[in-house]
Amino acid sequence: MDASDLPADLVPAQPPSSVNELSRLWSTTRAFRVFVVIGGLGLLGLLLLPVMVAARQSDRKTHVRNALKQLGVYYALYEGQFKAYPSNTPAFEDWLQKCGMDAKELLTCSRCGNRLSLLWEVAPSGSYEPQGCVKYTWPDTGPTDGAPPDLPIAWHRCPLANVGDDLNVLYFQGRVDVFAIGSPAEEAILNIGRPTPSPK
After folding, report:
1. How far apart are CA 136 and CA 43, in angstroms?
2. Least C-beta-crowded within 10 Å: which of 79, 100, 138, 168?
3. What does residue 197 show for φ and ψ, rounded to 5 degrees?
4. 32-47: buried (b, 16+ CB within 10 Å) or exposed (e) per residue?
5. Chain centre distance of CA 38
6. pTM for the full model?
7. pLDDT reported for residue 87
8. What is the rounded CA–CA span in Å between residue 85 and residue 11?
9. Dihedral of the CA atoms 113, 118, 121, 122 (nearest 10)?
10. How are beta strands 152-156 and 126-128 bridged, if at all?
11. What is the pLDDT of residue 25?
12. What pLDDT shows up at residue 97?
């Protein structure tokens, strides 16, 4: 039995007759491999893009929360030294400088460059009624030890933190919470310092 008796698909391929055919075959195979690798990398990039975006947003959210927690630490240290809570921004900033802390860095979001909202700047004196709690009123000298744990001390909405622009809030007890836009807690916090509408 010779090669002519075999079916066409079982006949061994003839070796290329010249060096040009061999180089053409080699370049075609190499180009195909390069396209496969580029396509695979592109597909991998498309699959990883949502993961990388989510990780970046998570980092931004964490950064805002950590900045507020750091402010809470200095807020408690200030009270420990002066037996009163901050009620005056220039005095608080001077004290921060003496502690070796850059006041502008502490009171400004490094992600968006906007200043944190501070209770004593928004409402030097006023009142706040947490959900289900008794209304608390503070004088212009600042909150007292009798302040409810849920009294907001500072808050910030970083437009770069996430799509929803959630409100990050530092409370009197040092806890940081995050509220979605339009939530009752968010509206109550944003209404601090605003005049209450008179009943009609």
Report:
1. 57
2. 100
3. -65, 140
4. eeeeeeeeeeeeeeee
5. 33
6. 0.67
7. 85
8. 92
9. 100
10. unpaired
11. 63
12. 92
The amino acid sitting at 159 is P
pLDDT digits (tens, 9 = 90+) for 104-114: 888 888 778 88
At 165, give phi and psi (nearest 5°).
50, 50
Pick from 176, 67, 172: nearest CA to 112: 67
Reported as type and span, the H/E element at residue 68 is: helix 19-82
- Please state at what angle helix 19-82 crosses helix 89-98, rounded to 10 degrees: 110
Tokens 């502490």 belong to residue: 106
DSSP state of 103: H
- Residue carrying the six token digits 């396209």: 35
154 beta partners: 118, 170
Give the pLDDT confidence score for residue 69 in this predicted structure: 92
Token pair of 127, please? 């009142």
Return the half-sphere exposure (C-beta side, CA atoms, 13 A cut-off) of residue 51.
Answer: 5
For the four alpha carbons of 12, 15, 21 and 26, in that order, the dihedral sign comes to positive
Amino acid at residue number 168: N
Average pLDDT, the chain: 80
Q: Strand runs (DSSP E) across the chain, as ranges?
A: 117-118, 126-128, 136-138, 152-156, 167-171, 176-179
- Alpha-carbon 20 to chain mean position: 59
Instruction: List all residues 6 or more positions away from 4 whose beta carbon is below 8 Å from its beta carbon.
Output: none
pLDDT for 9? 59
**Burial class (CB within 10 angstroms; exposed 0-12, middle 13-18, buried 19+) of 90:** exposed
Q: What number of other Cβ atoms are within 10 A of residue 55's Cβ? A: 11
